[in-house]
Amino acid sequence: MKYAISLIIVFAFCCCQQKQQEPVVTPWGQITDTIPTDDDFDLDAIQRNGELIALTLTGPETYYDYHGRHLGTQYMLAQRFADKIGVMLRMEVCRDSAEMLQRLNDGEADLICYPMRHHKDSIGWLVGTDKEDLSRELAVWYHPSLVDSVKKEEEFLLSSRSVKRRVFSPMLNRAGGVISHYDGFFQRYASTIRWDWRLMAAQCYQESTFDPQARSWAGACGLMQIMPGTADHLGLPRANIYDPEQNIAAAAKYLGELDRNFSDIPERSERTKFVLAAYNGGHFHIRDAMALARKHGKNAVHWREVEPYVLGLSKPEYYNDPVVKYGYMRGSETVDYVRKIHERWNGYRGVKTVRSSVTVNGTPQKAKRERKKKYQIQAD
User: Fold this and answer.
1) Which residue has the higher pLDDT, 199 or 68?
2) What's the CA dihedral at 222, 223, 225, 229 to 10 degrees?
């Protein structure tokens, strides 16, 4: 959706200017805090504190998590403004506009980064009543061309062009059954989590096309595209993140963790699909999709019945559903990720894939279904 933002800085509510003091309960009784609770917290104070607190709603045009990084037009605009005034940005997601307005009125945030309609054909952000300097700074900084600029940046980041990698063949020696130079590592570490090593190889090709130096804009590194923060969690030194064996070993460890997180899915062949989806789209988003499936009477531990709700999480009627805790996601990318890995894995095993479709509210969505038939490579 495209729109021009006319950034009209308005005051959300009128508030009492009389200084009040906050009663504080301590182990030795109640005292009165010496700091007035409604002291102005304008631009200078925000800069001294080093943090701009903004409120928004989840959505593709506002704010969402993508592979551990944040995107969305409103978020990216807010980040640019925070950079301009030299502070960190803390973006907090609310359930609806009423919550945003109430929290702004209560002084819990500095502004609302969401296109609020003030009057006919006017869309803009809201700034708290005690922040006149912040309002002026924002009005001077903003220009409508910024919207097109951040949209182009986001489009690039979501494209394959943002990943620096060399593209290698998906199979090194088909006649000899050699998939890559790293087959020995896949065999060694996939066995620790009881995965078919060819499935892990298929995932690796999807992540990096077997380029050990691959790097995404979000910071994912190496063969299995491991984020630095995830590497820290897994005990993989950042200095070794591009080492093929250590990268694959860490990825296997992470896949094992995800496998345990989905231990409530009893069928192993089903569980691997959820694990792959979580590796790509995030564990919590997949849990949201499972909750939606359960709510609509579907089998929440069967990927084919959850898949439509992963797709659905890109639609407001789904990501705004009360059972959804983590909001919008680019579900089509995750569904495609799982599908492509299984297709390649089937090819590595000599199993043919037959296409079928998935529907969301009666609308056909691209997907594929597996049917086992032997071809080319002899299956085990």
Assistant:
1) 199
2) -50
Range 73-105 burial, b when 16+ CB lie within 10 A, else e: bbbbbbbbbbeeeebebebebbeeeeebbebbb
Residues 30, 115: Cα–Cα separation, whole Å: 42
The larger pLDDT score, comparing residue 351 to residue 294, is at 294
The letter for the amino acid at 131 is K
d(CA 11, CA 9) in angstroms, rounded, equals: 7
Asked if 55 contacts 109 with a C-beta cutoff of 8 angstroms, the reply is yes
Q: What is the pTM of this model?
A: 0.72
Residue 369 reports pLDDT greater than 50: no
Please choose, from the candidates 226, 240, 273, the residue with its C-alpha nearest in 3D space to the C-alpha of residue 367.
Answer: 273
User: pLDDT confidence of 169, banded at 50, 70, 90?
Assistant: confident
DSSP state of 64: E
Query: Is residue 174's pLDDT more than 90?
Result: no
H helices present in 161-282, as ranges: 183-190, 197-208, 228-234, 244-261, 268-281
In the residue annotation, 207 being an active-site residue is answered as yes
Q: Which of 61, 137, 154, 207 is catalytic?
A: 207
Note whether 117 and 110 are within 8 A (CB): no
Euclidean distance between CA atoms 295 and 129, whole angstroms = 41
**In the structure encoding, which two tokens stand for residue 188, read together?**
């060694």
Question: If you write DSSP's letter for every residue of 85-113 in order, what string do you get?
Answer: HT-EEEEEE-SSHHHHHHHHHTTS-SEEE
Name 309's bridge partners: none
- Among the residue ranges 9-23, 182-196, 240-254, 321-335, the one predicted with the least confidence is 9-23
